[in-house]
Amino acid sequence: MGLGRSFSVALVGLAGHIVEVEADIGQTLPAFVLLGLPDASLTEAKDRIRSAAKNAGIPLSRRKLTINLIPASLPKKGSGFDLAMLMAALQAAGDVRPSGSTVFLAELGLDGRLRPVRGVLPAVMAAVEAGRPDVVIADGNRAEADLVPGACVRSFSSVAELLLAFGADPARVVLPPEGPEEGPGPDAPAAAAGHGPDMADIAGQQEARTALEVAAAGGHHIMLVGPPGAGKTMLAERLPGLLPDLPDHHAMEVTAVHSLSSTAAGLTQLLRRPPFENPHHTATAVSIIGGGSGMPRPGAASRAHRGVLFLDEAPEYDRAVLDALRQPLESGELVLHRAAGTATYPARFQLVLAANPCPCGRSDEKGIDCTCTPTQRRRYFGKLSGPLIDRIDLQLTLARLRRSDMTSAQGQESTALVAARVGRARQAQRDRLGRWGHALNAEVPAELFKGPLRLPRRMSADLDRAMDNNVLTARGYNKVLRVAWTIADLAGQAAPDRDCVGLALAYRQNERMAA
Questions:
Q1: Residue range 247-262, pLDDT digits in tens
Q2: 3 state SS of 401
Q3: Which of 33, 13, 14 minimizes the C-alpha distance to 22?
Q4: What is the 3-state secondary structure (H, E, C) of 74-106?
Q5: Which of 206, 294, 352, 406 is 20 to 30 A from 119 via CA?
Q6: What is the DSSP string of 40-81?
Q7: Vertex 328, ends 322 and 333: CA angle to 5°?
Q8: What's the whole-model pTM score?
Q9: Please, are residues 13 and 345 in contact by the beta-carbon 8 Å criterion?
């Protein structure tokens, strides 16, 4: 009887920490003691481990078994530690040879099968970064773990197969009967998708189509206000199709978030397409921002990282939910503090807000049929606080569609054509901003507008006048400049002219919001 040791990974947000698992077999009455801040799912692992070992043919020692998870001050949660604890216990009993620095990540079934777990991608990334590239996982997580460069991954379908690989006595090992092959669950996120709905399906709304193209090219946030049926939702749903595929480092970030937040294992390749999140207006702050009991989990804002977060019927959301988005809109990340610990998740998304002109939706240009009182209208838009609106780059009012728009034979541009222009504009931004470590106009810090990207006074005269008249805040001033540079990039210009600045300023001065 001695001491066994193995390794696993604890995830705190997307940050992984190597956990050393120690197992000691004492000389007292049978017991199973688990130390190291385990949560409920880890405490339940005691019975899973005993049953899995028994059904694999090598039961645990009948003496007192003490398992310690180091560091003890780090909260541990989830069933991914099952396999590491089993291996440490069997090493302590001398039933298998030491596993060295191998990291184990899998849940145990009572019949001895290895079950896939969530968060394998960020966990394997953490193991490789910590200098422990040898990883053992369940077969159901193999494709996901193979996405990590530098990882030496081995996968098994059962504890029995694993024990044979680590020197267990073949005469004792009992292989499980053949069963259905593990595969991706029904809720696993799609690894790749097409460009989705086509821009050619949108009738009319040429100004809104242009604004959406500007938003896609520069990574800008946009708000669409218009009557029901004007096409707000159709426009928002087509924004992801205008965005280019994610580069490798962004795809790895996005895939890691979805690996942690998905309800079923089964990612087989990097998520290359920008994600699209469209939560219902009854969603709580926890579901949008993230949180929950114990260690905080990512919400819709983090799942939309490097993609689009669409809030339809934005004034119907709780104001606290909307204002909670102000921090990630500025910083591009969410830091969630809870009693169990602090988790940091990336949240650099494009926000799209859609709203009716009033609660009844009939307050358009004429407003003849509107039944809302001025108080109701103010209360409706009062959910959208000034600081939140100030963070929206493009604020557009859509007109009601007319019959001529619906029956026009003139074809609209397709998503592919618009996406090609967006791609060229983004390349121009990378060429211009790469020396300062930025790729999109929406990310340009204000300091650059005072130095290398400063416009001549004659070009920014209208913008300066709006600032002097208190029409714009300092944040709004810089956002207009960012949009103006994007408009110039789409037009193939080296720098914005006065027309670009004027159009960007017009997008900023939404009549409905000003009222």
A1: 999 999 999 999 988 6
A2: coil
A3: 33
A4: CCECCCCCHHHHHHHHHHHCCCCCCCCCCEEEC
A5: 352
A6: HHHHTHHHHHHHHHHHTT-PPPSSEEEEEEESTTS-B-SSTT
A7: 145
A8: 0.87
A9: yes
